[in-house]
Amino acid sequence: MMSAHAMAHATAWESLFRAQVAVVRHLAADDVWEELTMKEYDVLFTLSRGPADGLRLKELNTDVLLSQPSLSRLVDRLVARGLVERRAVADDLRGTRVVLTDDGRALQRRVGRRHVASIDAALGSALSADELTTLTDLTDRLRNHVASLPAAARTTSTKEPS
Amino acid sequence: MMSAHAMAHATAWESLFRAQVAVVRHLAADDVWEELTMKEYDVLFTLSRGPADGLRLKELNTDVLLSQPSLSRLVDRLVARGLVERRAVADDLRGTRVVLTDDGRALQRRVGRRHVASIDAALGSALSADELTTLTDLTDRLRNHVASLPAAARTTSTKEPS
DNA sequence: CGAAAGTTCATGCGTCTGCATCTACTTTAG
DNA sequence: CTAAAGTAGATGCAGACGCATGAACTTTCG
Question: What architecture is the A36-147 domain classified under in CATH?
């Protein structure tokens, strides 16, 4: 037995997930990723949006769907290509800030322009301007909600055994 | 220069993408993936929804975000575990149908139940029933639109040279 | 019909990924 | 202050992934 609410949740999530897969698949096929993989672009993009003095690995990791070790090595590769730099964090000798270099920023902009055009072509006239606004609003709220949740939960049983 | 429409597209896509990342991250942390990775579950789930005589690899591949070779090997592993079988396709000796075994179906259901509970817990009260319906509708339409597109496009220039 | 082109899936291979763990610090608490 | 616990990030390693390509068909077209 599944409650109607749980069902609506599962349905909405599946639709969202499948839509994401379809769009990513389409965007991936575009000739925009010769210099940067999507994940690499994601990192540069996130950095380009963040504060001028960069972001810590931990912070980057909340936006990029990659394990901490994988992200660490992805950043290694970007450093090797001169697109980002690792710098020290004031007051915390463990941490690392990741900062865009001029080359990195330029590349992000170059790829970003083409990527945006690609997105525009992919979404086309599927949704009206109002619908796009609604979609943005709903997904933003969904993200904020989930991000505010206490990490992991035991979902084996719906009811706690008292 | 970017048109307002292209901007709305890019914004909506980013929100959708980030929401997906946040939810996947949350769901991945749940103790539901001991027996099956998310991608393996995705394959079993897709099969459980499809026709009784299974799906071809090509068809599976449209739903699962994985390259054809990777999917082929993922299916290898599922076969090795006795969760699916490969069968011949009538009228096409190249093809392979992938069919759920009883064990595979049972496992999908078992994991699926817990996964649905996990989704329910994750989405919580973020959106109202109406909003969930709206989100489902918008993402469904988005997916159908993108799926109907002619594969890859050159997006370097916005205007076709006549 | 028969050759060329296209499709479906599998496989070799180098790279990327995640898990577990380690190091180096920072924070908490006795 | 010091020991224990916690946190940030790096690294060894086995396994998974994608790209390029191969093998076995099927379809198209002269």
Answer: Orthogonal Bundle (1.10)
- Is the CB of A94 within 7 Å of strand D? yes
Q: How many whole angstroms separate alpha carbon A46 and alpha carbon A35?
A: 17
Give the tens place of pLDDT for each residue, B80-91.
999 999 999 999
Q: What CATH architecture does domain B20-142 belong to?
A: Orthogonal Bundle (1.10)
Smallest Cβ–Cβ distance between B8 and the set A29, A129, A149 belongs to A129
Residues 104-123 of A with CB under 8 A from B: 114, 116-123
Residue A70 pLDDT exceeds 90: yes
Q: Tens digits of per-residue pLDDT, B112-141?
A: 999 999 999 999 999 999 999 999 999 999
Show Cβ contacts of residue B98 under 8 Å, excluding neighbours closer than 6 positions: B43, B47, B54, B55, B56, B57, B60, B75, B84, B85, B86, B87
